[in-house]
From TrEMBL:
UniProt subcellular location: Cytoplasm
Descriptive protein name: Phenylalanine--tRNA ligase alpha subunit
Subunit field text: Tetramer of two alpha and two beta subunits.
Any GO BP annotation: phenylalanyl-tRNA aminoacylation
Organism the protein comes from: Paludibacter propionicigenes (strain DSM 17365 / JCM 13257 / WB4)
Entry's Gene Ontology cellular component terms: cytoplasm
Coiled-coil ranges per UniProt: 5-76
Keywords: Aminoacyl-tRNA synthetase, ATP-binding, Coiled coil, Cytoplasm, Ligase, Magnesium, Metal-binding, Nucleotide-binding, Protein biosynthesis
Catalytic activity: tRNA(Phe) + L-phenylalanine + ATP = L-phenylalanyl-tRNA(Phe) + AMP + diphosphate + H(+)
Database matches in InterPro entries: aa-tRNA-synth_II, aa-tRNA-synth_II/BPL/LPL, Phe-tRNA_ligase_II_N, Phe_tRNA_ligase_alpha1_bac, Phenylalanyl-tRNA_Synthase, tRNA-bd_arm
Amino acid sequence: MKNRIKQLLEEINQLAAGNQEELEALRIKYLSKKGEISTLFNDFRNVANEEKRDVGQLLNELKNSAQDKINELKDAFGATTNTENKPDLTRSADPVKLGTRHPLSLVKHEIVDIFSRIGFTVAEGPEIEDDWHVFGALNFPPEHPARDMQDTFFIEQNPDVLLRTHTSSVQSHVMATQKPPIRMLFPGRVYRNEAISYRAHCFFHQVEGLYIDKDVSFADLKQALMYFAKEMFGENTEIRLRPSYFPFTEPSAEMDISCNICGGKGCPFCKHTGWVEILGCGMVDPNVLENCGIDSKVYSGYAFGMGVERITNLKYQVKDLRMFSENDVRFLQQFESAY
């Protein structure tokens, strides 16, 4: 192998190329994954142990020499090309169109910005999680239907590894590692085994919020959500809170806003009620606090969670959320002015 390395080193020192095509051919011959030097590196494992140190040094010198030589020739061609400065007559006369942010990204950033004005910061976590952080720490009983195969995408079982069904899993991590006060948002993508329609998808995006401190009340939660609704949808937006149930909050509520697609008159999107549910919320269950190492007798808190697609539907009056993932440029171009 040493003789072959020396032979290649002599060849590389004598390299010359008349144009860019010849230079690229030389690069492929010596430096590509299937080139001469890569072949030698693959054969290196067959070298005797007592020779590996010397042969390894020679191989590295060979590779560096080849790279230096190719770069030297490339710089020479670059200098020649720059002096010519000829226009490319094959280019289109139309200007290159620049992209813009996706409407879901626009709305997610707006949600984060609104809550950041009242002290919330952002935390993110993994999309592949374990059962404890997604369900167990959040007070889901073992027999809860959310754990069923028809609702959750499991990767492995015993131990359970799954795609997170909500970004509440990030709350579990934060509460277990940080001491109150906690005032944070948790944006991200989540997955649920649902039939795809104009109102639902098997993946979607959430922004959840968590506030834990001493003497936090439901009135604090209501005021924060009222502030958010008016900042996001306008001063005339009305909200209503309906009693509900979630394993991780008690008491719990669903929050509706007056439908701004039909102006409250009734349409298919609001199911002809004039109201659209946009988020769930409630006071953090004491069991959740204790599961995450927070003394529920000293601290209390509230949590909420919303789907970014639902908020985007309402804000931009998009009636079919499947359009967000179809990558139709004609649809996305409508949001350039919102950038």
